[in-house]
Design a protein that fits this description.
Strand content: under 5%
Number of helices: 8
Distance between the termini: 55 Å
Largest sheet: none
Structural class: mainly alpha
Radius of gyration: 18 Å
Length: 220
């Protein structure tokens, strides 16, 4: 019974999160609506992640989804934190999260043979590598603290990571719900979210270059 409730909350939060995420994309960047619904999206992501961890740790259901949970969690967390760290740098909580994510990623990597992986192993390895690379990139940023203060840098990083979390949410949902259509249930969502990410990285910085005061922006 509790397992079914956990699944229901997980699915509901994920579906609502996908639709809520649309609002920050279409609203004025940096405005009240953008910030408000951005926070709502992050809270919904937190619910999705917590319920996913419940499924893995408590109900021992589909442990291979650990890697998707890690990717979604760290992308969303780091994408939000970049708005804070661009001014005051990393704090101990940021390093603690990095260590935790890396520990879980490597733990899953070494124990993957016993993880009841339902997706193709190449997809899982790719996501694990992506998570490790993302954390590694943030760790390297510690040695170049002035880099993040550049609007051209933090703006792109914010878009990249939050959109990455949004894409992971869509891919995980489609990959699980449409499991009978493998591998298209993985390929098509990944292709769509990649194209959407590229569009966001090109369109939004150009459209909002005056608002974010991005220097030397490329003219349209």
């Amino acid at each position: 019974m509790l397992h079914q409730v956990n699944i229901f909350v997980h699915v509901l939060a994920g579906i609502v999160g996908i639709f809520i995420a649309i609002v920050p994309y279409v609203s004025k960047k940096g405005g009240t609506v953008h910030r408000k619904y951005g926070r709502v999206f992050l809270w919904l992501m937190a619910i999705v992640i917590i319920t996913a961890l419940n499924g893995v740790l408590i109900f021992v259901d589909r442990p291979f989804l650990t890697v998707v949970t890690l990717l979604s969690f760290y992308s969303a967390y780091s994408g939000f934190r970049v708005l804070k760290t661009k001014e005051k740098g990393f704090e101990w909580i940021d390093f603690a999260v990095m260590v935790l994510v890396l520990a879980v990623a490597f733990g899953f990597l070494f124990g993957m043979s016993n993880a009841n992986v339902l997706w193709h192993s190449s997809v899982v390895y790719y996501m694990l590598g992506y998570v490790i690379a993302l954390v590694g990139f943030d760790a390297l940023r510690f040695f170049w603290p002035k880099l993040i203060s550049n609007p051209k840098f933090w703006l792109y990083e914010h878009i990249y990571k939050i959109t990455g979390a949004f894409g992971a949410l869509i891919s995980a949902g489609a990959g699980t719900v449409f499991a009978a259509f493998e591998p298209y249930n993985q390929i098509l969502p990944a292709s769509f979210t990649t194209l959407w990410l590229v569009f966001c990285l090109i369109y939004f910085p150009r459209k909002n270059r005056a608002l974010f005061k991005v220097p030397n922006a490329v003219s349209q």
